[in-house]
Write a structure and sequence with these properties.
The chain has 170 residues and is mainly alpha-helical. It is built from 5 helices and no strands. Helix 1 runs antiparallel to helix 5. It is rod-shaped. It starts with a helix and ends in a 6-residue tail after the last helix.
Length: 170
């Protein structure tokens, strides 16, 4: 058997397999990182949804004590409605969509801050266990939001680095 006769075919096969492995590795890494971005964004949305779910409970608890704070309560409810109407698909996100989403979430944060400041005027409410529990839940949720946003930013940074560096950017 003449080994030299098959040597070009063996070299070609090794090169083809090597190139295929290299290209599929790059593609699979990009897909994995993209999925990490989507999962991280889902965690951000989950945290914001948790906060939005707490708002009606806080509003109803405060409503019983602070009847004349209707404008503040209304502002919180309206900010929540606006925030829940803004959604983002992480696969097709634009800077404008992200700005609108952040603006809506900032409105919720601002309204909630005003509500919690107005609560300071009601000592009975501040001592109400229901309200204290809700306030603790809200503080925990705000921490979750911060962590989820940090994780999302890290996932996006890793994905962007991968798809923008050579040879992945080819």
């Amino acid at each position: 058997m003449d080994f030299k006769k098959f040597l070009p075919w063996i070299i070609a096969a090794v090169l083809i397999i090597g190139l295929y492995s290299w290209a599929s590795g790059i593609y699979n890494t990009a897909v994995t990182l993209e999925q990490n971005v989507k999962e991280s964004w889902g965690n951000v949305n989950t945290s914001y949804q948790r906060r939005n779910d707490l708002i009606p409970n806080i509003v109803s608890t405060v409503k019983g004590y602070a009847e004349h704070e209707k404008s503040t309560l209304t502002a919180v409810i309206e900010a929540r409605a606006k925030a829940t109407s803004v959604t983002i698909d992480p696969a097709n996100v634009t800077p404008e969509q992200l700005a609108a989403f952040n603006s809506a979430q900032s409105g919720v944060t601002s309204s909630l801050s005003k509500l919690l400041v107005s609560v300071e005027q009601y000592p009975n409410l501040k001592a109400n266990q229901n309200f204290l529990d809700l306030q603790a839940e809200l503080a925990g949720t705000e921490n979750r939001i911060a962590v989820a946003r940090k994780d999302f930013n890290a996932a996006v940074g890793e994905y962007n680095l991968s798809v923008r560096t050579f040879p992945n950017n080819i």
